[in-house]
Specification:
- This protein has 190 residues and is an alpha/beta fold.
- It has a domain of 132 residues: Pyruvate-ferredoxin Oxidoreductase, domain 3, CATH 3.40.920.
- Helix content is 38%, strand content 25%.
- The chain contains eight helices and six strands.
- Strands 2-3-1-4-5-6 form a six-stranded mixed sheet, with helices on both faces.
- Strand 4, helix 2 and strand 5 form a beta-alpha-beta unit.
- Helix 5 crosses helix 6 and helix 6 packs across helix 8.
- The longest helix has 14 residues.
- The chain is globular and about 45 Å long.
Length: 190
């Protein structure tokens, strides 16, 4: 197995926790894994991307090149659009349909791409777009969007539900473990 996963969003959405969970999950299941975080102004809602490479052999360079991502987890629709060139032609794109407008758009200095949905649909082998924020809120916290998206993408990864639940239990604050496990399950059903 060689799987390249790009996790994209904006600061404060939990992209880094999602990558830590994936990395620990891969290690616990005997895979080699490399993580590489690239953040812009993450504390101020800027773009954040994490490259996760998982292999049953040896992982070389940690960064995923354009056209090499098997899966992109996009915590926000514009980030999905921005990072779409990194997805393989037959890759899977999981998108939280929430949109966080960048400051230049809010200030009227730029426009949001009008054809966002069409471009995502036409350039993706498998598009799974859903309101992960709504599901997370129904589970108890808007901060569980990351876990909802991981749950949805878990079907494309070779890890058991038991492994996922164990890793969530080991990496999430104890008072939030059950809520995150519930969010993961709801993400699988999304």
């Amino acid at each position: 197995m060689n799987t390249n996963i790009l996790i994209v969003g904006v600061g404060g959405q939990g992209t880094l926790l999602a990558s830590v969970l994936l990395g620990n999950l891969a290690l616990e299941n005997g895979y080699d894994v490399k993580l590489s975080e690239v953040h812009g102004m993450s504390q101020r809602g800027g773009s954040v991307v994490t490259h996760v490479k998982i292999s049953d052999g040896k992982v070389g360079a940690p960064l995923i090149e354009e056209g090499e991502a098997d899966i992109i987890l996009a915590f926000e629709k514009l980030e999905a659009y921005r990072w779409l060139p990194y997805l393989k032609k037959d890759g899977a794109l999981y998108v939280n349909t929430q949109q966080i407008l960048p400051m230049p758009v809010i200030m009227g200095q730029a426009e949001n791409p009008a054809d966002l949905d069409r471009v995502l649909q036409e350039n993706t082998g498998s598009l799974k777009a859903f309101d992960a924020m709504k599901i997370a809120e129904e589970c108890g916290s808007s901060k569980a969007v990351n876990i909802v998206l991981l749950g949805a993408a878990s079907k494309d990864l070779p890890f058991s539900d038991e492994s996922w639940m164990k890793v969530i239990g080991e990496n999430v604050k104890p008072k939030f473990v059950e809520m995150n496990r519930f969010a993961f399950t709801k993400g699988q059903q999304a």
